[in-house]
Amino acid sequence: MDSSSSKCEKKPERGALGRMTVTYRVRSDAASIEARAEAIAIEQSVETPLAAISDETVLRDILGKVQGIRELEAGLFEVQIGLAVETTGFEAGQLLNMLFGNSSMQEDVTLNDAEIPDIMAARFGGPNVGIAGLRAKCGADTRVFTCAALKPQGLSPKKLASLAARLAAGGIDFIKDDHGIADQAYSPFADRVRACAEAVRRAGSRTLYVPNISGSFDIARGQIALAIEEGVEAVMIPPMILGVSNFHRLVGEFPSMAFFGHPAMAGASRIAPPLLFGKLFRLFGADVVIYPNYGGRFSYSPETSRAVADAARRDWYGLRRCLPCPAGGMTLERAPEILDFYGPDTMLLIGGSLLSERDRLTEATAEFVERVARYFEDKNR
Amino acid sequence: MDSSSSKCEKKPERGALGRMTVTYRVRSDAASIEARAEAIAIEQSVETPLAAISDETVLRDILGKVQGIRELEAGLFEVQIGLAVETTGFEAGQLLNMLFGNSSMQEDVTLNDAEIPDIMAARFGGPNVGIAGLRAKCGADTRVFTCAALKPQGLSPKKLASLAARLAAGGIDFIKDDHGIADQAYSPFADRVRACAEAVRRAGSRTLYVPNISGSFDIARGQIALAIEEGVEAVMIPPMILGVSNFHRLVGEFPSMAFFGHPAMAGASRIAPPLLFGKLFRLFGADVVIYPNYGGRFSYSPETSRAVADAARRDWYGLRRCLPCPAGGMTLERAPEILDFYGPDTMLLIGGSLLSERDRLTEATAEFVERVARYFEDKNR
Question: Is the ipTM of this complex over 0.90?
Answer without folding.
Answer: no
